[in-house]
Design brief:
PGIP, Leucine-rich repeat-containing N-terminal plant-type domain-containing protein, eight-stranded parallel beta sheet, Leucine-rich repeat, LRR (right-handed beta-alpha superhelix), 2 helices, signal
Length: 341
């Protein structure tokens, strides 16, 4: 075979290989750039330029089907063992079909969460992004206003970081948002009034372990998420507007705040499964309605100023004395019997 024929065969094989590759060249180039911007960590060793990012099982990515031209739609960067601190790669914004972005570290496994700095503005180029998860990293700064441009977002999880500043009033304006988790950051100031106006179908509002102060906005009377967690802040005043027989809330966590209101006047959602109001300044009696909650499996009213007889019946029989401890004068099973009530 002549040298020319050999050259033509090699060229044909190269073209055939390129045409058979599923990974879109733009996505592949972007992923390799992301790897470079992260210091080429060992955990992304499967990202080899000569391999196909879609059919050769590159770690941390998922590609669409043929109908989606095999574009990368999910990037899940977990427990990257980075050689030194790096910011979130700006090149992430060059994955136009990305719907799911997750950057996270698992606590207590010996890997330093070496993702630092602010959320990059290039993320606004992800116009199809639905879920944004950045958890247990060292990112800092405010939640940037430019995230309000990503109208497709339905879930934001920025928990366990070093974010600070006030909670952004614009969050409820995202038309598809149904879940927001901002646990364990350094947010301060009041909860915005707008947080009572999340869209119908909103199911998670978690603001625990921050530095929030002030009262719960009156607009929260309309809030009807499945899970509401305001625990471990410095909130005060009346939290009774979170409750009500017409709501469908399943889990309410208010522990370790300074709430003070008459617990005896509450009416509960029939859907309530878990309720923790411990370590507050709540007073009054325990409503008899607690005994009618068929789904209630977890209760804690300890360390308050409650008084009177503990309601009997229903699931109340499953709760130990510890859930009632350190109150003013609660009595009845499982505590000592009542003498004055």
């Amino acid at each position: 075979m002549s040298h020319l024929n050999i050259l033509l065969v090699v060229l044909a094989l190269a073209i055939t290989g390129a045409l058979s590759e599923l990974c879109h060249p733009q996505d592949k180039q972007t992923l390799l750039q992301i790897k470079k911007e992260l210091g080429n960590p060992d955990s992304l060793s499967s990202w080899i330029p000569t391999n196909d990012c879609c059919k050769d099982n590159w770690e941390a990515i998922s590609c669409g089907t043929e109908a989606d031209s095999y574009r990368v739609y999910a990037l899940v960067l977990k427990d990257l063992n980075l050689p030194k601190p790096y910011p979130i790669p700006p090149s992430i914004g060059n994955l136009p079909y990305l719907k799911f972005l997750s950057i996270s570290f698992t606590q207590n496994i010996g890997i330093i969460p070496n993702i630092v700095g602010p959320i990059p503005p290039t993320i606004t180029k992800l116009t199809m992004l639905r879920q944004l998860t950045i958890t247990n990293t060292n990112i800092s700064g405010h939640i940037p206003y430019f995230l309000s441009q990503i109208k497709t977002l339905d879930s934001i999880d920025l928990s366990y970081n070093k974010l600070s500043g006030y909670l952004p009033t614009w969050l409820p304006s995202l038309p598809n948002l149904i879940s927001i988790n901002l646990d364990s950051n350094r947010f301060s100031g009041p909860i915005p009034d707008s947080f009572g106006s999340f869209r119908k179908g909103f199911w998670l509002l978690s603001l625990a372990k921050n530095r929030l102060t002030g009262k719960i906005p009156a607009t929260f009377a309309k809030l009807d998420g499945d899970i509401v967690d305001l625990s471990m802040n410095k909130l005060d005043g009346d939290a009774s507007l979170l409750f009500g027989p017409r709501k469908y809330t399943m889990k309410i966590f208010l522990q370790y705040n300074m709430f003070a209101f008459d617990f005896g006047k509450l009416e509960f959602p029939k859907t309530l499964v878990m309720l923790d109001v411990s370590h507050n300044r709540i007073y009054g009696t325990l409503p008899k309605g607690l005994a009618t909650l068929k789904n209630l499996v977890s209760l804690d009213v300890s360390y308050n100023n409650l008084c009177g007889k503990i309601p009997q019946g229903g699931n109340m029989k499953f709760f130990t004395e510890y859930v009632y401890a350190h109150n003013k004068c609660l009595c009845g099973s499982p505590l000592p019997s009542c003498k004055h009530f």
